[in-house]
Design goal:
Mean pLDDT: 93
Number of strands: 10
Structural class: alpha+beta
Low-confidence stretches: none
Bound molecules: zinc ion
Shape: globular
Order of helices and strands: HEHEHHHEEHEEEHHEHHEEH
Largest sheet: 4 strands, mixed
Distance between the termini: 65 Å
Number of helices: 11
Helix content: 25-40%
Strand content: 15-25%
């Protein structure tokens, strides 16, 4: 049978509410929010969302709460904050239609955020998905941060320095990528001829090996706070690993790292370098 594609020049919301699609790729100018509800109702298997309104998502401008029903904070890890707030909004919009999100690859690049996610049908799966949302408490005095799935475990003061903490969320706290999917994308990219191939390979490889821990640390910001000369990221990651912690680079920033070590433990490793 001959394969056909049909193109429409019509309001995306009208089209999405009239038809169900296996794959929906939402790539509007600016915020995807005006189309997100209809996209979540329409999609059956794979949902892709691009957002270019990174300022409200990052907390750099107001509007995060209004558009995404979540409070962002403008921290050193604002790119990840934005990605997880967008994923949180996608989770909640899908859940209304008994659908669950399974992020396959989520990334932030220059002026946009891109989410590629599998969608699974079922009220129980959707309920389980809502449990992946949570909050992050950030201390602007010392840089300490704590993530939690509920607000009960979060106090009002920083446990390290006693300063008042600020809350961001709700946002998506579970892994934002799936290793096997990234691996397949990487293999496929490697055999293709395409523009910006090197850049794309680096992005996928770094995402694939990035720790599934919410929120990265900016290497230079920590060194400045500690008044120590920054080593290379590779040296710091090796030092954290040899001390028994997990550590990785992050695609969000070339000058940042992720680790399961707490802030005071990172400082001890840095001071020993
Ligand atoms: Zn603090």
């Amino acid at each position: 049978m001959e394969e056909r594609a049909t193109a429409y020049n019509t309001d995306a919301n009208v089209l999405l509410l009239q038809h169900k699609y296996d794959l929906v790729d939402l790539d509007p100018f600016g915020s995807p929010v005006p189309f997100l509800d209809a996209a979540c109702k329409s999609v059956k298997k794979l949902l892709l969302v691009t957002a270019t309104d990174t300022a409200p998502l990052c907390g750099a401008h107001t509007g995060g709460l209004r558009k995404y029903a979540a409070k962002p904070l403008n921290t050193e890890y604002h790119k990840e904050m934005a990605t997880r707030i967008l994923l949180g909004r996608v989770t909640r919009d899908l859940c209304k239609y008994d659908q669950a999100v399974q992020p396959l690859l989520s990334y932030s690049k220059s002026h946009f955020i891109r989410i590629i996610a599998r969608v699974a049908k079922g009220a129980k799966k959707a309920d389980a998905c809502m449990n992946r949302l949570g909050f992050i408490a950030h201390c602007f005095a010392c840089g300490n941060r704590v993530s939690s799935h509920d607000m009960q475990g979060i106090g009002t003061k920083c446990e390290l320095c006693g300063a008042k903490i600020r809350l961001a969320g709700p946002l998506y706290l579970d892994p934002i990528k799936e290793y096997r999917f990234c691996e397949q994308v990487h293999k496929e990219l490697a055999i293709r001829e395409q523009g910006k191939k090197k850049e794309a390979l680096k992005l996928v490889a770094t995402s694939m090996n990035e720790l599934d821990i919410p929120f990265y640390y900016e290497h230079h910001a920590i060194c400045k706070a500690l008044k120590v000369q920054p080593s290379t990221i590779a040296t710091l990651i090796d030092a954290l690993r040899s001390t028994g912690f997990s550590a990785s680079r992050t695609h969000f920033s070339d000058t940042a790292f992720k680790t399961d070590a707490r802030l005071e433990e990172i400082k001890a490793v840095l001071n020993a370098l």
